[in-house]
Amino acid sequence: MAFTIPPLRDIKPPRWVKPSFNLSDRNWLPELIPITACLYVGVVILLPALAVVVQAFAKGLGVFLANFQSEELLSALKLTLIVTAIAVPCNTVFGLAAATAIARRRFRGKALLLSIIDLPFSISPVVVGLMLVLLYSPSHGLLAPVINSLGWKIIFSWPGIVLATIIVTFPFMAREVIPLLEEEGWEQEEAAKTLGATDWQVFWKVTLPSVRWAALYGLILTTARALGEFGAVSVVSGNIRAETQTLPLFVEDAYKQYQTELAFGAAMVLGGVAIVSLLLKLLVEQLLERDKKAARLDQEG
Amino acid sequence: MAVAQPRLPGWFRLRLPSWPWRFTWAYLVLVLFLPLAGMLLKAAGVGPQSFWELATTPEALAAYKVSFGVAALASLVNGVFGLLVAWALIRRRFPGQRLLDSLIDLPFALPTAVAGLALSFVYGPEGWLGKPLMQLFGLKVSFTVVGVGVAMVFISLPFVVRTVEPVLRSLEKEQEEAAWSLGASPMQTFFRVVLPQLMPAILGGVAQGYSRAVGEYGSVVMISSNVPFRDLITPTLIVQKLEEYDFEAATVIGSVMLIFSLISLLLINLLQVWGQRYQGSEGSN
Fold first, then answer.
1. Domains (range + CATH), chain B
2. What is the pLDDT of residue A48?
3. What local confidence, expressed as pLDDT, does residue B1 receive?
4. CATH entry 1.10.260.40 includes domain A60-300
C-alpha cells in the first residue's frame, strides 16, 4: 500500500492552534472604525464640498454659465491668473536654487535655515499681509519715503498682491525637492563634472531630471495655493471691485452682497481647480514613488 | 576625488558662494527677512509700556480667548478623530477607501474662501445641517463660536491624519502579536503598546493643526459674525484695526501672533525630534 502525502492545503492544524493572530476576529469594535471615519470625514469635508457643487448648479447650467458674463468676476479671474503667472515662476526658480544650494551641503544651522524656509506655513496669512503693509504702506510704511519718491504703488495694487502670494507659497517647492536631493547624493553630478560639463549643464541635464516629479509636485502645490490665497491678499489688496479683487476675494465679497449665485459660481471655478490639482497630485505621487523605488534599487544593486 | 585641492587652513578655504546660494539668500532677505524685520522694528517703536497695554486690551484678550481656546478644542477633536481616520486608512480594508484617502487632502487644496462659503451655507439657518441642528437641538452654528470651531475642525483635520499615517504604517505587527500572546486584551494592547508609539506623531499633528487653526482667516471670517467679545478671532481683529487705520494696535497684536507662531514652530520641531526615536528603531531593523 503506497503512502501518499496529502497536498499541503489539506493539512489542517490541530484544534488547539488558534487560526491567526488577527485581533479583530470576534470584535465588533474594529468594524466600527471605518464606519465612524467615513461618517466623520463625510460630515466635516465631503458635505461642504458637495454643497459648493450643488449650489453652483442649483438653478441649472444656464444660470451657472451666465455668471461668466459678470465683468467683475472676469476681471477677478484675470487678476488671479496674472498674479499666479508671476508668483509661481519666481517661487519655482527660488525653490530649485535653494534646493541645489542647501540640500547637498552640511553646515551649521542647516536645520534652522530649513525651518526658516518653512516659516510662512506657520505664520498667519493675515500677519504676512500686515508685515507688507507695515513695510510698503505709502502713509505708515517703513519704506514709505523710498516708495513715494520712486512713485511706486505697492499696497492696494497688484505688486502687493503678488508679493503676498509669493511669501505665502514659496516654501512648497523647496520643501518637496530638498529631501529628494539629500537622499540621492552627489555621484552623478560629480561624474558629469569630471566629464567636463559646466555647472549650468549639470543642473539642466543631471540634477533637474532627477528631481523632475518632486519639482512638478511642488509646482502643483504652489499653483493651487497661489490661486486660492485669501488672508494675506485681502489685507494688502484693498478689495476694490474689478481692480484689485482676486477670485477668492470676489467669492467673499459677492457672498456678503447677497449675490449668492455669483459667489458659488466663482467658488465652483476655484473648487474645480482644487479638484484638478488633487487629481494631478495623486498622479505625480505615483510617478514619484516609482522613481524613488528605482533609486533605491539602484543603490542596492 | 582625483583632483587634489590645495588644503589651506581656516577660512582661506572659503570660496565665494555659488550662484544658487547667493540667489537663495537674496530672495529670502527680500521676501521674508525684510518684512519680518520691518514688523519687529515697528513693534519695537511702540515701546514696552504701551505694547503691553495694546496687547492686553479687553477686546484683544477676548479675541485671544476665542482664537486659542476654540482652536484648542478643534485640534483635540481632530486628535481623536484623525487617529481614527488614519487607523481606518492603514489597518482596515473597506470599499471607498481610496475616496476617503483623497478627501482628506481637500482642506489643503480648497481655497479657504471657498471652504468658508461652503461651511456658512451648510451650517447656515437654511443649510443642510444648520436647519436640522437648529430644529432638533436649538443649536445655532453659523455666526457663533460653534461655527468658528467647525471651520477650524475642517481646516486642521488633514494634519493629524497625514502625520500619524506613516508612523502607523511602519509599526511592527509583531509587537502587538507579542502583547496579545502574553495575554493582553485588545484594549490593553492599544493603550500600552500602540498608542505610546503613535503619541509623538499625534501630538505633532495636533500642534500643526492648532497652529494652522489659530492663524486661519478666510474660512472663519465667513462663518463668524465677527462681533467683538463674542466670536471675533485674532486675525480678524488685526484686519479690523488696519481698516480703522489703527496701525499701532494692529502691529502689536500681529507681533503677539508672530511670537506664537515662532514658539509653535519650535515646539513642532522638538516633537519631530522626539518622534524620530521611534522612526530610528524602524531603520535599525
1. 45-279 (1.10.3720.10)
2. 93
3. 46
4. no
The 8-class DSSP code of residue B224 comes to S
Q: What is the mean pLDDT of residues A76-102?
A: 93
* Residues of A whose CB is below 8 A from B91: 30, 33
Does A230 reach chain B within 8 Å, measured CB to CB? yes
For chain A, give every domain's residue range: 29-58, 60-300
| pLDDT level of residue A1 (50, 70, 90 thresholds) | low
- Tell me which residues of chain B, numbers 216 to 275, contact chain A at a CB-CB cutoff of 8 Å: 216-218, 221-222, 234-236, 238-239, 242, 247, 250-251, 254, 257-258, 261-262, 264-265, 268-269
Task: Give the pLDDT mean for A169-194.
Answer: 87
The residues, any chain, with a CB within 8 Å of residue A136's CB and separated by 6 or more, are A143, A144, A147, A154, A155, A160, A163
Nearest chain A residue to B255 by CA: give it: A127
CA-atom Rg of chain A in angstroms: 27
Average pLDDT over residues A99-126: 87
CB contact under 8 A, A128 and B35: yes
pLDDT score of B165:
93
Query: How would residue A18 be classed by pLDDT, with cut points 50, 70 and 90?
Result: low
Grid coordinates given for A173: 517647492
Within 162-191 of B, beta carbons closer than 8 Å to A belong to 173, 176-177, 180-181, 186, 189
Question: Best interface-test mutation with A: which of B36, B68, B114 has the largest number of A CBs within 10 A?
Answer: B114
Using an 8 Å CB-CB cutoff, list chain A residues near B177. Answer: 21
pLDDT at position A297 is: 78
Contact (Cβ atoms closer than 8 angstroms) between residue A87 and residue A226: yes
Contact call for A255 and B117, based on CB within 8 A: yes
pLDDT, tens only, A209-267: 888 888 999 999 999 999 999 999 999 998 888 888 999 999 999 999 998 889 999 99
The reply to whether B36 touches chain A by the CB within 8 Å rule is yes
Return all residues near B213 (Cβ < 8 A) that are at least 6 apart.
Answer: B70, B71, B74, B75, B152, B155, B156
Q: Is the pLDDT of residue B15 over 70?
A: no
What per-residue confidence (pLDDT) applies to A16? 65
Chain B residues in contact with A125 by the CB 8 A cut-off are 215, 217-218, 235
d(Cα B200, Cα B175) in Å, to the nearest integer? 18
Residue A163 main-chain phi, psi, to 5 deg: -60, -45
For residue B52 the three cell numbers come to 503691553
Task: Spell out which residues of chain B touch residue A97, defining contact as CB-CB under 8 Å.
Answer: 19-20, 23-24, 27
pLDDT (average), residues B240-267: 92
Helix axes A110-122 and A171-184, enclosed angle (nearest 10): 150
Q: Does B41 touch chain A (CB under 8 A)?
A: yes
pLDDT of residue A27: 63
> d(Cα A14, Cα A16) in Å, to the nearest integer?
6
Kindly give, in sequence order, each residue whose CB lies less than 8 Å from that of residue B61, ignoring residues fewer than 6 positions away.
Answer: none
